[in-house]
Design goal:
This protein is mostly beta strands. The mean pLDDT is 83. The chain has one helix and ten strands; from the N terminus they run αββββββββββ.
Length: 144
Amino acid sequence: MERVFFAVLFTLFIVAAANALYQDPQATFTNNMQDGTLVYGDSAMLSWDVVVRNNNVALSNIDIWISNKDSGARVGLKSSPFIELVSYNLYLGTSPTPQLYATTSSNSYFVERLSPETVYYWQIVAIDKTGNRYHGPIWYFETR
């Protein structure tokens, strides 16, 4: 009976520890131009890189066995350091809170028909395969 109690207690401890160590994934955004870049003409190529790092360890399986001769517990752990991104929402506009402009699976987008002498704000929201969204900073550029 003591073995059963120890196996169950050990398993509960592992589950509680894994939950206590959970951290939200961290996203890092970079783009191809510095804020305030001057764009000459009526088009611009916007490109970006997003890396989402998952610092968590997840429980992959829990086995508890109890028999007359033996009992115990086995816990499998797995980690996935990077999260796969499947699409990007590009927000673009002349307001500091840009509106959805396009959705793409590429990390670049060619924007046409820009007005001269205008400040444009843009933002990327990266989406992973489970639908989680990672919001990047709002950047801006100016047209001439």
